[in-house]
Design brief:
eight-stranded mixed sheet; globular; alpha/beta; 207 residues; 5 helices
Amino acid sequence: MKLTLTEFVSLDGVCQGPGSPDEDTSGGFTRGGWFVPHMDDAFMQQAADWLAEAGGLLLGRRTYEEFAEAWPNMPDPDEPFARKMNAVPKYVASNSLAEATWAPVTILSGDVPAKVAELKRQPGRELQIHGSARLCQSLLAAGLVDELRLVIAPVIVGSGRRLFPDGAAPTGLKLVRHSATPGGLAIHVYETTGAPEYGTYEGPGDA
């Protein structure tokens, strides 16, 4: 399976609490909900197209618990997003979660990168990470993420957890698709290419 990451980020790289003020207040974060004003039909269609490719969801504990509370309780269980999210297999990376009830679900504990590598060797459609920034960082460091789908909102949040903090694993990327929505979201899709390349700039006078 191909491992993909979909992440909402601000222009200054914040990924914490995009969906509401009380989504994730850890660390005293008070600026949640910054992504919502920029959502539009074009973005929703792109999100639906990505989700249609999912053969499984790979989530960190916090994201899993948020999703498990929301998606099974949607007013319309036949709404396309809810139907897909509830039906597809879920994999939760956690060493602290004792049980998970949003079926079908499997808890991955211990050596999570090794277990994700095993999942990737199985045939099937995409294994998708949504949110789960800490999980993403660890799997990028392990060289397991194949594609990053960054949806960048035109806002500077100014504080909060960042997707790529200091000390993140150096990773080379190739831009394979990009677009913008009427609401101002910039959608960048990257393939990972291994270690970054480095070079030295030689100006016109150095030739």
